[in-house]
Amino acid sequence: WESRRVVVRHLRVAVPGLPPSLNGFRIGQVTDIHIARDLTQLHHLDRALRLLADQRLDILCATGDLCDEPRQFVAVLRLLSQVPTRLGHFACVGNHELFLGMDVVRRAYDRSQVQLLEDESVRLGALRLSAVGYAMSGRSPRLSLHDVPAQLDDALHERTAGEPTATVLLAHHPHVYTQLAGRNVALTLSGHTHGGQLGLGDGSIVEPLYPYARGLYRHPAGDASAGQLFVSSGLGHWLPCRVNCPPEAVVIELCAV
Questions:
Q1: Residue 200: phi, psi to the nearest 5?
Q2: Pick from 113, 52, 44, 43: which is nearest to 77 by CA?
Q3: Which of 158, 50, 62, 144 is CA-nearest to residue 105?
Q4: How far, rounded to the nearest angstrom, does the alpha carbon of residue 234 sit from its chain's CA centroid?
């Protein structure tokens, strides 16, 4: 039953040194939708996006693993683009986009109003929105942390010294966060974990095994330059079983400290 629910999770994130124009900036996030005949259905996504429609979003961000069937990818992006925003719709890829084939994925994005960011960034006023892809080595589906720093170099290289902006990073896998020391990123948005599909308060039962599983985190070394990490438990599922961890669409409001 809980796998068929959808909730809107509201989160206020205090950002030191936030430019005044970004105080109250609202970011919608959806992730890990896994649209497929035997997984998540389009009507489930449509229901979630309708809940976001009246949230006065400045941007909507999709952080990967959106669709597992090539023929439905365009429909997924069309639904995402229909959510009202002030400044647009953006996305990064997850490992399932790589499994699907990046040629298929890029063609779908080319036909949509959702902008795919691949190891690059865009400036939206005082916000620098950056994104990295999913680094894989060989046939292993695991994140290749060794390759992440080069991706971050590419994604962040357009920033200039003294640029009066705050940087938000889209990274499907939350372990990208471990590579952010010294990068001056205010907030990273991730997914991938589905929250373990087992919730414990605002976190997850699986956190002892997977430390960045669900919720808001600060860098373990206390490095302010790494900012904060938010891991959404996502809209879809691997198996239709969730306990205290319902599918979610997220609304994040940035605020000054």
A1: -140, 100
A2: 113
A3: 62
A4: 9
Q: How far is CA 184 from the centre of its chain?
A: 18
Q: How far apart, in whole angstroms, are the C-alpha atoms of residue 35 and residue 237?
A: 10
Give this prediction's pTM: 0.96
- The region that residue 104 occupies, defined by phi over 0 for left and psi between -120 and 50 for alpha, beta otherwise, is alpha
The encoded tokens of residue 159 equal 């920033």
Helices 42-52 and 73-81 cross at an angle (nearest 10°) of 10
pLDDT tens digits, one per residue of 34-69: 999 888 899 999 999 999 999 999 999 999 999 999
Q: Using CA atoms, how far apart are residues 26 and 10, in angstroms rounded to an integer?
A: 10
Beta strands in 95-165 (DSSP E): 114-116, 120-124, 127-132
Residue the block writes with tokens 């400036």:
123
